[in-house]
Amino acid sequence: MEKGIWSDFAQEGLDKMQKEERRKKVFKRVVNPLILKHLVSRQDYNGSCIASGIPIKYLSYFKEVSAHKNAKKIRYRYRGKSGLKTQYKTGLQMQYIRPQSFCHMNGADTFAIYHR
């Protein structure tokens, strides 16, 4: 039996619904508790930082949630020290030496979220 045009549309709709459900679950189970834990809420602070000190292993979840069209526009800033590091994507050990004012994602230990 041949696939019709309606079955393609139905499959696309189903895929979109499943992706939306996964995004909501990731937000409720991972992203929201981490934001509440690492929230910057000092009375005298007037910067644009939302949360800081979030471990780098949760970055993919934050990017998945913030990629939605209705999500607030945010910027990620990576934080870390120089020295022997395990890369975020490949898992390889490397010596990371950086300028004081810059930290690459592969050399980061934590990240912060800022308003864009």
Structure description:
The protein has one domain (5-115). It is 35% helix and 23% strand. It has 2 helices and 5 strands; from the N terminus they run αβαββββ. It has helices at 5-37, 59-66, and strands spanning 49-55, 74-79, 83-86, 93-96, 110-115. Strand 3 and strand 4 (93-96) form a beta hairpin. The longest helix is centred in the N-terminal third of the chain and has 33 residues, at 5-37. The chain starts with a helix and ends with a strand. The model has no long low-confidence stretch (mean pLDDT 82).
Overall average pLDDT: 82
CA radius of gyration is 19 Å
* Percent in strands: 15-25%
Give the strand line-up of the largest sheet. 1-5-2
What are the secondary-structure elements, in order, as H or E? HEHEEEE
Globular, elongated, flat, extended or rod-shaped: what is the shape? globular
Number of domains: 1
Alpha-carbon distance between the termini?
A: 51 Å
How many beta strands in the DSSP annotation? 5
Biggest pleated-sheet summary: 3 strands, antiparallel
Briefly note the structural class of the backbone.
Answer: alpha+beta
Q: Which parts are unreliable, with pLDDT below 50 for 5 consecutive residues or more?
A: none
Q: In percent, how helical is the residue content?
A: 25-40%
Number of distinct helices: 2
